[in-house]
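Researcher: Next entry: Ubiquitin carboxyl-terminal hydrolase 12 isoform A (Glycine soja).
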Amino acid sequence: MDNQKGMSISFETFTWKIENFSKQNTKKLQSKTFRIRGYKWRIRLYPLMKNVDHFSLYLMVADSLPPYGWNRNTHFKLALVNQLDGNKSVVKETQQKFNGGYRSWGSFFVNLSDFYDSKQGYLLNDTCIIEAHVCFSDLSTLEANNLKKITPTKDSKSGDQAARNSESTQQEDDKEAETEIETEISDESETFSSSTCGSSETEWEIQSSDLTLKDLLDLASLGKEEAACVPLLEEACIWHPSLIRSQRKSSRWFKLWAFTSLGQVLHLLKTSKVKDMNEDACNRLQGLWEELVKHSGFQLSWLEPYVQSALDMKTHLDKTDEVNKLKDSVVALEIKMKKLREELVAAEAEFEVARRALAEARKGFIEMDLNADLGYAMF
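Model: Predicted structure:
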């Protein structure tokens, strides 16, 4: 347990040791479920992709809970342990409200170049160590102003023993949660907010709003087609809170148009296959996208590469048709060549039989001039 005497806060610690890190699927890397204060949690690593140059961690709710109507105030710390010098461990501390719109909270920790450099101590022998320190005290008795401060600390080793105790007493719960989480929380529902701010004072600020899509739109009034886009919109708003912030002061009808139009684009990208992107589909996507960019007020640079890639599929399909026609032609000629080869082999075999028969027939046979007179001698 971690104790902060000044605020009488007690933490319980979970340690996540990731071995063979280079062999892990870092696009979907998360810890096993652990239970603290009767709640189930997971640590999730920010997807490490080509366009990501930083290492970020998130604490996420692992319970199966309804999308709305619940909330959970939690004070916690996440730590990236420095295995060479504990004083250089990176620890981020905050209090946040988890609810249907914000199931996870996280922050930037280090640049990827520093993380992968073994001399820095964060990834050593292809192993990194991450800790989650979750408060299990009654937060209602604590002063909110003190808890909301973000104070990066250097006490990364303080929870080692508690982590071992926590893991040993929670093995059965973890086994149960491992099975439960796979069936109850899909990849689509395990969405989380992203923050890449540099200073400690603003690291968590981008996620500080409690507004959700439900607060802006009357979701119950949406038609069947629009309602099908809501899960995608909720996921996008969690990843990009600016979508909600940009529409706070817009009129009801403008919000409805903006989000339903965005939902249509997301739904088209999510449900369409490459073969579906014919000229009509591309024209529809192009029209929706141009209206969104020009009139919605959304900051959509994060979505633009995906839209452009989808629009490029028309050219790809045309090229695919050309390649397939040439491929069919090559296959047809190959079949014809194979058939001709088989005929040639049969002809060669027949020729050899005829040649041998001819040689046999010529034995003892004297050729004569067939045009010569037969003649006969009478005198």
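Model: Note for the record: The first helix runs from residue 112 to 116.
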